[in-house]
Design a protein that fits this description.
Blueprint (H helix, E strand, L loop, with lengths): L8 E9 H10 L6 H13 L4 E10 L10 H13 L4 E5 L4 H11 L2 E4 H12 L3 H18 L24 H36 L4 E6 L5 H9 L16 E6 L5 E6 L9 H6 L1 H9 L2 E7 L5 H14 L4 H4 L2 E6 L6 H13 L3 E2 L8 H13 L3 E8 L3 H10 L1 E8 L2 E8 L1 H11 L3 E3 L2 H6 L1
Helix pairs in contact: 5-6, 6-7
């Protein structure tokens, strides 16, 4: 057992409504089980080093307005909290401010709901200034809704001391005003971050290196995959939300074309709306990416449900059906799949335009890079350029700015077939003029 002095003693409760159980049974096995939801809540709690003393599923017919849980269940849990010296009760559900206060009074312990727990994790994980600002913004929005005279000191009248507010202003009003002012400052700072990110993106556009963004359910192995492809040192521990701040690295594809690979924060079921909004600046890399890699943990029993949650968040971000054509499913953790299932999964992934990989063993990574290259090539224009043998500088330029598919030398001339994106093609046409000709669709297919 964890030393009591080392971590806060916590009880984790998942609240399940009977109507949801009946709906899931009617729908089949596509939904999550209460046990898996509890397991995820325990994982989230462990991510901030809580000492999990016990965990349980609480099944309700309907929510109780005052406490979410019924009076009998509240009394039962209060006894457990007292006997086991529980300091924190995690409720894996959304609590109204009044419900949270009433439960804290009944349990005589701190109570945090799912949103509050995720915010705590994000607060610990943020390392960059941008990440810290985004977390603080979401936390303030959350706290603002909790300022409903939680404690007696909020009802005191405060005298007029200038900077603390005018005569007769209550502590509650002051707290709300100060929070709103801080929110406004953070939003201004994040707007500057957004402008700076836009400038960086313009610089990349001039290179030009396409952006490939990793997305996926938290703990699907995105950061392990990112490290395997880039040889970076991104935190890839077996923890929910181990990665919070975005990381970008350059990767060279099999035929020499370079891309920028972007690792992002993991998604999760019932992700609070305020967190999606707060992290929109970070997730702009996903919105603007030429290709989105949806990393899935195919060894997980609820891989399909997790994929549906990720797709829901992508929809919230404005990635519509047309943009979905830029998405590649990467079925990760092949090393944890039973050998007799591997070939079936590999064929199924291929039929869906994806690929099966193991970021740990490296299996399938070359195939993944080749798939990214082919998908990028679909948006490229293919051209043929004829150079004189002495035009070494122009030949080097083609290799630098395009993807060379073939090169033939004969009678003092070099003929190169290459692909360029829209911007690269414009530069090539200006540079080579009549020496460049676009290839027709028949030649494209042959190449």
């Amino acid at each position: 057992m964890t030393d009591r002095n080392a971590a806060t003693r916590a009880l984790v409760l998942h609240v399940e409504f009977r109507s949801r159980v009946r709906g899931r049974n009617a729908a089949g096995s596509g939904g999550r089980t209460p046990a898996s939801r509890l397991s995820e809540a325990v994982g989230l709690s462990s991510a901030i080093d809580l000492a999990i003393v016990d965990s349980a599923i609480v099944t309700l017919a309907a929510p109780h307005p005052a406490t979410l849980l019924g009076p009998g269940k509240v009394a039962e849990i209060a006894t457990v909290v007292e006997e086991d010296e529980i300091e924190l009760v995690v409720i894996n559900a959304q609590l109204a401010p009044g419900q949270q206060r009433n439960l804290e009074r009944a349990f005589k312990a701190k109570v945090v709901d799912r949103t509050g727990l995720i915010l705590e994790i994000f607060g610990e994980r943020a390392r960059t200034r941008e990440g810290a600002l985004q977390v603080e913004l979401a936390h303030l929005e959350y706290q603002k809704s909790r300022l409903v005279r939680s404690w007696t000191h909020l009802e005191r009248q405060r005298g007029g001391f200038g900077f603390l507010g005018g005569p007769g202003e209550t502590q509650l009003e002051t707290d709300r005003r100060l929070i709103q002012e801080r929110i406004a400052r953070i939003e201004r700072d994040l707007e500057q971050v957004k402008r700076t990110r836009g400038l960086h993106r313009k610089k990349r556009d001039r290179v030009p290196y396409p952006v490939v963004a990793l997305v996926g359910y938290t703990n699907a192995g995105k950061s392990t995959l990112f490290n395997a492809l880039t040889h970076a040192g991104v935190d890839a521990r077996d923890l929910l939300f181990a990665t919070l701040d975005p990381t970008m690295r350059q990767v060279t594809l099999p035929h020499g074309r370079r891309i920028i690979l972007s690792d992002t924060v993991g998604f999760i079921s019932d992700l609070p709306t305020m967190l999606v909004a707060a992290f929109r600046a970070t997730l702009e890399e996903v919105i603007e990416a030429e290709i989105v890699l949806h990393v899935r943990d195919v060894a997980h029993a609820e891989s399909e449900a997790q994929a549906a949650d990720v797709e829901g968040v992508l929809g919230d971000l404005g990635i519509d059906e047309e943009r979905r054509s830029h998405l590649i499913e990467v079925w990760n953790k092949a090393d944890l799949v039973a050998p007799d299932r591997l070939e079936v999964l590999r064929e199924l992934a291929a039929r869906q335009g994806g690929t099966l990989v193991s970021a740990v063993t490296g299996e399938g990574l070359e195939d993944l890079l080749g798939l990214i290259e082919r998908r990028l090539a679909e948006a490229l224009d293919m051209v043929e350029i004829t150079l004189e043998a002495r035009e070494g500088e122009n030949l080097a330029w083609i290799y630098e700015h395009g993807e060379v598919l073939s090169r033939h030398e004969a009678e003092g001339a070099i003929t190169v077939v290459a692909r360029f994106d829209e911007q690269g093609l414009s530069l090539a046409e200006r540079r080579f003029g009549a020496s460049l000709r676009r290839l027709d669709s028949a030649r494209r297919a042959a190449e």
